[in-house]
Amino acid sequence: MRAVGFYKYLPIEHPESLLDIEVPKPFPKGRDILVEVKAISVNPADPIVRAYDNKVGEPPYVLGWDVAGVVEQVGPECTLFQPGDEVFYAGSLIRSGCNSEFHLVDERIVGRKPASLDFANAASLPLTTITAWEGLFDRLGISQDPEANRNKSILIIGAAGGVGSIAVQIANLAGLTVIGTASRPESIQWVNELGVNFVINHYEAFLPQLQKIGFNHVDYIFCLNNTDQHWNNMTEVIAPQGKICLIVENEAPIALGLLKSKSVTVVWETMFTRSTFNTEDIEEQHRLLNRLAELVDEGKIRTTVTEKISPINAANLKLAHAKIESGKTIGKIVLEQNDARLGHH
């Protein structure tokens, strides 16, 4: 089957950084399902893994963690899906990725594709939504009941990015007052369209900006980019007994002691934890994605696609990786197979 992969970890400008290759078509065993890939989206995880030499198995290495497609075959122990089902999911970091014609995935981390979306729009959602959902509800421990969050505020740092674009919408549904950070006119417009209550600039000191809009502190912070850059600002504006969730690894040591007097909780979110460690609650991602599909079909969550490219090949994936590496993307970049538009919507 066709795939896009590589043999060596190289910068994106290198001619062999991503290549069109042929690999054997896999076969589902146990609880795995084989999915015919119709569309994929590209996340910051893709260039990070490509650059950092995180070897999984033997070369060629195939990346990709956001898929929408159709179930082709199911393993003998599967109970959740059947051939012909339209699905979406984000896969696992410790298995071959989805930048291929067919992809093998554990059914417990797969959801039913929203009926109201085509494959391209559906492929934009899983990784960012799982990250946002787990970050807000599992890690920060925020209630899903809007009544419980009356007068509670959250600061989302990097609100215009892939995860931020979804986190803003979910935090809104949960009844929080949402303050998002954005710095360019186009990203400010984007987060306003998604429903933030206030916008501040992440290149300026947070506290004076928050005070201008009537806040001395925030109850929750969800930091979706440069942890090191924002740490001191975060420690200054988090409320006593507040909670901070981080998703980007710090490069320098961070001064946790700054939070001691406020008894602040700091938590990490990685959406691959459940699939990497096969945790007891791994099937929560299946339920989460099915709930997401319902919210999308009810018109409560919108997709965040800002660019579609066709078909899925090495040249187009290189283009997408380079855009992600620029750090200036808004929303999500999606690649779709030429025939993806022919699927039933």
TrEMBL record:
<dbReference type="Pfam" id="PF08240">
    <property type="entry name" value="ADH_N"/>
</dbReference>
<dbReference type="Pfam" id="PF13602">
    <property type="entry name" value="ADH_zinc_N_2"/>
</dbReference>
<comment type="similarity">
    <text>Belongs to the zinc-containing alcohol dehydrogenase family. Quinone oxidoreductase subfamily.</text>
</comment>
<protein>
    <recommendedName>
        <fullName>Zinc-type alcohol dehydrogenase-like protein</fullName>
    </recommendedName>
</protein>
<keyword id="KW-0521">NADP</keyword>
<keyword id="KW-0560">Oxidoreductase</keyword>
<dbReference type="InterPro" id="IPR014182">
    <property type="entry name" value="ADH_Zn_typ-1"/>
</dbReference>
<dbReference type="InterPro" id="IPR051603">
    <property type="entry name" value="Zinc-ADH_QOR/CCCR"/>
</dbReference>
<keyword id="KW-0862">Zinc</keyword>
<feature type="domain" description="Enoyl reductase (ER)">
    <location>
        <begin position="16"/>
        <end position="335"/>
    </location>
</feature>
<keyword id="KW-0479">Metal-binding</keyword>
<dbReference type="InterPro" id="IPR020843">
    <property type="entry name" value="ER"/>
</dbReference>
<dbReference type="InterPro" id="IPR011032">
    <property type="entry name" value="GroES-like_sf"/>
</dbReference>
<dbReference type="InterPro" id="IPR036291">
    <property type="entry name" value="NAD(P)-bd_dom_sf"/>
</dbReference>
<dbReference type="InterPro" id="IPR013154">
    <property type="entry name" value="ADH-like_N"/>
</dbReference>
